[in-house]
Amino acid sequence: MIYEGKKRIWSDYQKEIPDDHWFFARSCIRQNFNPGAENTMLDIVRNKLGKDFYETKYHTTCGGIAYHSDVIPQETAMTIIARHFALMTEAGYKNMVVSCVTSFGLYSEILETWKEFPELKAKIQQNLWDACRKEFDTPEYLAHSSDIMYKYRYPMSEQAKYPLTNVHTGKPIRVVEHIGCHYAKMFPSKGVGGAEYPYVLSGLAEAFGGEIVDYPERRHCCGFGFRQYLVKANRGYSLSNTYKKFESMEPYKPDVIITNCPGCNYFLDRWQYVLSETNGKVYGENGYGIPVLSSEELAALVMGYDPWTIGLQMHQVAVEPLLDKMGIKYDPAKKYEGANGKQLPKPQAPTLLKCY
Amino acid sequence: MGKYYDKLMQDYRLKEGLNACINCGTCTAICPAAEFYKYNPKNIVNIVQSKDEEAIEELLKSDAIWYCGECMSCVTRCPRKNAPGLVVMSLRRLSIETGLFTESEKGRQQYALAKVLTGNILDHGYCVHPATFKYESHPEYGTVGKWIEDNIDDVYERVGAVYNQDATGALRKIPKESMDDLHRIFEVTGANDLLDHIYTASKKKADEMGLTEEEYFHQVFNITGPEHLNNY
Fold first, then answer.
1. Confidence check: pLDDT of B1 > 60
2. Mean pLDDT for all residues in chain B
3. Residues of chain B contacting residue A133, judged by C-beta atoms under 8 Å apart
4. Most buried of the four, A145, A198, A253, B21, by CB within 10 Å?
5. Do A141 and A264 sit in the same domain of this protein?
6. Which residues of A touch B166 (CB under 8 A)?
7. Residues A121 and A192 in one domain
8. Number of compact structural domains in chain A
């Protein structure tokens, strides 16, 4: 092996992520299903690490799910995203971080397309002026929120209260990582580690003391497939892909799955419930599923955030087995509280899958 | 050269996504859709690069172009830097523009997708929104999803979301000026024209099938045949 050659090849997949001053854009899916993950990330970077992350209420959907469901034109998605760039420009920022992997892929696709076809960028600039009377600069740096977690992995691990160690065995927590397809499969150089050997989540888990578990279908899609999930008649596609992944990872007995894509997080969580109801099978230990956390949720647990304050009760698969392994102190009675300590009725228990 | 191929080549995604396919089949080997559906992206790319107008028209009328999940796993692995997923997106766009999408069961589903997704964008400013994402049509949302829906204000407030509020943060009410911007972007960029194509062609098809618009939505959203599957 020629070491220098290897080093040069890998240099294409290393990202020089800026240290500070970010314009933050939220994810549609995450705001619906796991809004605590976004809020927790902002709390970590602003209040634990002292960084500048700005957001505006005028940001909207990027239209990515509609674009990839083929119901809006490419120019429409481009102009909506150009408007987001204009909001960033107006606020005085040059680095943009998006919380959604579909958005990250689409923003990357647009920026690369404009490089190849500058006349198209000029057309979008005109579209945006005609529609909104706005002008924009493109970001100097575009990141996904998992890149931010990766960037700050060591400063966060210095504040770790519960490292990824099984307190009962003394061994590392066994982590499966799942990377959203649109993070790097289209543009490998945009992701930490590229598409074939992405390191963005592995690096985070290792910095916290976890052990990454490999398995055959590690890079297989979660199965979202846009129209393949959104249309009820097609959902077998989505479920079948997740089933394939769980059957593949089961023998390796992971303690937790971590994701960087809001959609993947939802599907790997909720389809475990459906598989338990339809196939009579659960994939975790003692009747529980395998907990599925985002990179932000994992970091928050390690740093000692309360699991219910960050919203882990919004996952269908119970996280308690992981909390117990990590030795995290939590109050089970507070799991299903509402605002201001109001006690809410518990969710109905699934037939087989334990959820509390 | 002909009308379909020329039209496809105007799409930037095809310009980017189709160089010279060598028919190696790597895309099909890696494709999640090819494992599930009777689907072969290699054949689709080959038909397009053959410039066979009749065969392209058959594709535009077919279920095949609607099987892809747009995960883009094919893009990573293609040894010729093609993007079969982008080729499929171009074909879908042309199928809608020509109205041929209503000729296939999977193509007809665009009606439901357009109604739901662009409804969410134009009414709420989000692609997904609690006002329309309901446990009833998404039972996989689970018992926890039902619990979230039943206790929506409490659950969201506890985790710091600002559902439907005039504030900055998760699930805020998108300000009117931003919603107005979205509506104007749809008009200026041709999204409204594309939606008109979808709705007009779907209405025509619903009439042919003797269905009301509501019945047509129910049919395309809920019903599919087993003939699409590999193991059928």
1. no
2. 97
3. none
4. A145
5. no
6. 57
7. no
8. 2
B173 pLDDT above the threshold of 80: yes
Nearest CA in chain B to A336: B155
Range of the domain at A46: 22-145
Report pLDDT for A1: 59
Cβ <8 Å between A342 and B116? no
Are B158 and A130 a contacting pair at CB < 8 A? no
Do A119 and A222 reside in the same domain of the chain?
A: no
Q: How far is A47 from chain B (nearest CA, A)?
A: 15
pLDDT at A15: 87
Last residue of a domain, one of A115, A145, A175: A145
- Share of residues in chain A with pLDDT > 90 (%): 94
- What domains does chain B contain, in order, with CATH numbers? 3-106 (1.10.1060.10), 108-223 (no CATH)
pLDDT attached to residue A6: 75
Same domain, A131 and A30: yes
Q: What is the mean pLDDT of chain A?
A: 96
**Inter-chain touch B145–A270, beta carbons under 8 Å:** yes
What is d(CA B30, CA B112) in angstroms, rounded to the nearest whole number?
Answer: 29
| Contact present, B143 and A350 (Cβ < 8 Å) | yes
Q: Residues with Cβ < 8 Å from A324, sequence gap 6 or more?
A: none
A224-252 mean pLDDT? 97
Name the residue among A310, A314, A315 with its Cβ closest to that of B155.
A314
What CATH number should be reported for the domain holding residue A67? Answer: 1.20.1050.140
Chain B CB contacts of A116 under 8 Å are 16
CB-nearest partner of A80 from B35, B114, B182: B182
The answer on A36 and A175 residing in a single domain is: no
Residue B208's contacts (CB-CB under 8 Å, 6 or more residues apart) are none
Same domain assignment for residues A138 and A159: no
> Of A38, A271, A309, which has the smallest distance from its Cβ to B170's Cβ?
A38
Amino acid code (one letter) for A330: Y
* pLDDT tens string B73-128: 999 999 999 999 999 999 999 999 999 999 999 999 999 999 999 999 999 999 99
Nearest to residue A244, comparing CAs of B106, B34, B161, B17? B34
Q: What is the pLDDT of residue A4?
A: 80
Helices (H) and strands (E) in chain A, counts: 16, 8
Our CA-based measurement puts residue B228 at a distance from the nearest CA of chain A, in whole angstroms, of 10
Q: What is the CATH number of the domain that holds A247?
A: 3.40.50.11810
Contacts of A227 in chain B (CB under 8 A): 66, 69, 109, 113
Tell me the pLDDT tens digit for each residue of A192-218: 999 999 999 999 999 999 999 999 999
A70 dihedral zone (left: phi>0; alpha: psi -120 to 50; beta): left
Chain B contact set for A219 (CB, 8 A):
73
Q: Cβ contacts of residue A47 below 8 Å, gap of 6+?
A: none
Question: Rounded to 5 degrees, what are φ and ψ at B26?
Answer: -60, -40
Task: Decide if pLDDT at A327 tops 70.
Answer: yes
Q: Give the residue-averaged pLDDT of A325-336.
A: 97
Cβ contact, residue pair A116, B175, below 8 Å: no
**Mutation site for A-interface testing, chosen from B60, B73, B154, B159 by largest number of A Cβ within 10 Å:** B159
> Which chain A residue lies closest to B198 (C-alpha atoms)?
A71
Of B84, B101, B83, which Cα lies nearest the Cα of B92?
Answer: B101
Over residues A117-136, mean pLDDT: 98
